[in-house]
Amino acid sequence: MTSKSLHGEIENRLVEHELRYTSARKSVVAALITSDGPLSASELHDEFGGSVPLSSIYRSLVVLEETGILAPHLGTKGLTRYELAEWLRGHHHHFVCIDCGAVEDVAVDDTHERSVDAMVNEISSRVAFTPINHALEIEGRCARCA
Ligand SMILES: [Zn+2]
Ligand SMILES: [Zn+2]
User: Fold this and answer.
1) pLDDT digits (tens, 9 = 90+) for 112-142
2) N- or C-end of the chain: fewer Cβ atoms within 10 A?
3) Domain identity same for 73 and 9
């Protein structure tokens, strides 16, 4: 989806909930569209150079999560970061740095995605669990920390 159509989809979703696409909500979404991974409230605050108050960033994150526009990503150190939900951003996985905590999106090609699905199906079938989706976290050290 282009950035323009993403904003359109998001505005429609908010309107369905009788909510407005305020400038703070737009700023949060715009930052997450261009980001290469999930961002926390304070990372967004830095991104905006302090131009959007932290309190309105927090309120925007709550509303955008409640309406299914954002999905939380729970970091290893208890920090919650947010990203666009899968219906907007597409299916992907994450690299998580165990030293600095940075989280980066990684798109997996179809061949590898099929192998992951096959493994998930096999593991689930042993315990009569019906898999619907999966999320792969690859933990290690990012280029800066390696
Ligand atoms: Zn790192
Ligand atoms: Zn996958």
Assistant:
1) 999 999 999 999 999 999 999 999 999 999 9
2) C
3) yes
Assess whether 86 and 96 both reside in one domain.
no
Please check whether residue 96 is in contact with residue 76, taking contact to mean a CB–CB distance below 8 angstroms. yes
* Same domain membership, residue 95 and residue 85: no
Q: Which ligand has an atom closest to residue 133 CA?
A: 2
- Tokens for 76, please give them: 């290893």
Separation of 129 CA from ligand 1 center, angstroms? 35
CA–centroid distance, residue 24 to ligand 2 (Å) = 31
Q: How far apart are CA 95 and CA 143, in angstroms?
A: 11
Report the DSSP pairing between strands 80-84 and 70-74.
antiparallel
Instruction: Using the 3D structure, point to which of 67, 90, 113 is the last residue of a domain.
Output: 90
Residue 14 CA to ligand 2 center (angstroms) comes to: 28
How many angstroms separate the CA atoms of 6 and 12, rounded? 10
